Amino acid sequence: PTSPGMLLLLAALPTLLAFEPGCRTSRRQSTKPLAATYTIDQTTLDGPLVPLSNYVLIEVDDSRDTTSGGIVLSVKEKAQSGTIVAVGPGKDDKETGVTLPMPVTQGQHVLWGRYDGAEVTYCGKPHTLLRDNDIALVWDGDSRDPTADTARVLRGNVLLKVLRKPGELASGLVVATSDDDLPLEGRVVAKGEGALTREGVPVPIEVDIGDCVKFRDFSTTEVTIEGEDYVIVGAP
């Protein structure tokens, strides 16, 4: 029997995903066959799931607070990592009709906020359906863990290496302060191509790799890569 939760999930699927008979793939985006039988929870499908619009289907890595490569997930909002299984064709802008291109491809590794996306059990494994603009970090290669050299941010985001926190002196000593609104200092180590206009043209980010900047600890995603503190912030 199908539970009410399953009915809700199936009712929501057409807004996120489509599937085609057999093992054929979408003409607009390819999907790698995962199994001879495709299932979502206890329901058997006629073929692989194909994300629509700007959604990606991600196979979730095993839950962990610290990865083998040394990336410590934020205490404020623990993130999740996984591998992209399938990518949608991109979102159509309602005013211009332009399909905004997807910034990721199948097989890449990504990091996202734990509370972002929709969780599904696909082919017996945990997966997440996620919008492209909810992806915090992306990297290529065989490793499940990013490094300072492989980590990339998307669109209008900037990856900063934290240089100094509020109350911290250059010597490393920390001075007590009651002002939690003091800016932090960081150095730009990676940046996206820029947020897209309605015509799909990226707007360049007005900072360069190596620039030192001050920022406030609001709406940032914190990660520690190879023992070093980084934050992901949106460019103004």
Structural class: mainly beta
Which range best describes the helical content: under 10%, 10-25%, 25-40%, 40-55%, 55-70% or over 70%?
under 10%
Based on DSSP secondary structure assignment, what is the total number of beta strands?
Answer: 18
Instruction: Name the overall outline.
Output: globular
The overall pLDDT average reads 77
Please provide a written account of the structure.
With 236 residues, the chain is mainly beta. It has one helix and 18 strands. A six-stranded antiparallel sheet has the order 11-12-5-7-10-13, with no helix packed on it. Strands 6-17-18-14-15-16 form a six-stranded antiparallel sheet, with no helix packed on it. A two-stranded antiparallel ribbon has the order 1-4. The longest helix is centred in the first third of the chain and has 13 residues, at 4-16. It has one helix at 4-16; strands spanning 17-19, 38-40, 43-45, 49-51, 55-60, 72-73, 79-87, 91-92, 99-100, 109-113, 118-122, 125-131, 135-139, 157-164, 184-191, 212-215, 221-225, 228-234.
